[in-house]
Amino acid sequence: xxxxxxxxxxxxxxxxxxxxxxxxxxxxxxxxxxxxxxxxxxxxxxxxxxxxxxxxxxxxxxxxxxxxxxxxxxxxxxxxxxxxxxxxxxxxxxxxxxxxxxxxxxxxxxxxxxxxxxxxxxxxxxxxxxxxxxxxxxxxxxxxxxxxxxxxxxxxxxxxxxxxxxxxxxxxxxxxxxxxxxxxxxxxxxxxxxxxxxxxxx
Length: 202
Hints:
The chain is of the alpha/beta class. The chain has helices at residues 2-20, 23-34, 121-126, 178-187, and strands spanning 57-60, 70-73, 78-83, 87-92, 95-96, 104-113, 145-149, 155-157, 168-170, 174-175, 193-197. The radius of gyration is 20 Å and the shape is globular.
């Protein structure tokens, strides 16, 4: 019996050592514990004050892209709408959590005000409590506006969780507070070029 207890103790110690030596597991667990997930039915608190880092502002921005182009920096958690004269309107955004980030060149193929939401099967598998369909409105996680990217499931959209701006929390979409997404929506037409970068341009 003593040998058996010793063997069990050794196995438990080895397991604890492996888990403590695996920062990815620890980080994933912590993120899952702190991740509220999508919250259908929650109405956004429009009085929520964004940190100055995430507030819309005009900034200097060097690029060879034409005015009107959208450049999204996942690493910075900023969306830039290029303006003439080496400037850009910069918006704070929420981006995909680790493992859900991507990069590419797309265009806006569709725009919608107070869009309906049909979570894809992969999202429902991760969050079984989600509705299979939700009509647009203040409690919809897509928020006040959505701009659809290419033929993908990804969008630039609003949110009913303004406190998530500046975080890595989504399933790959880019979220802005409702006031900012409405402002961007009015500035860009269907066909707008969208560049998504995971790392800043050198």
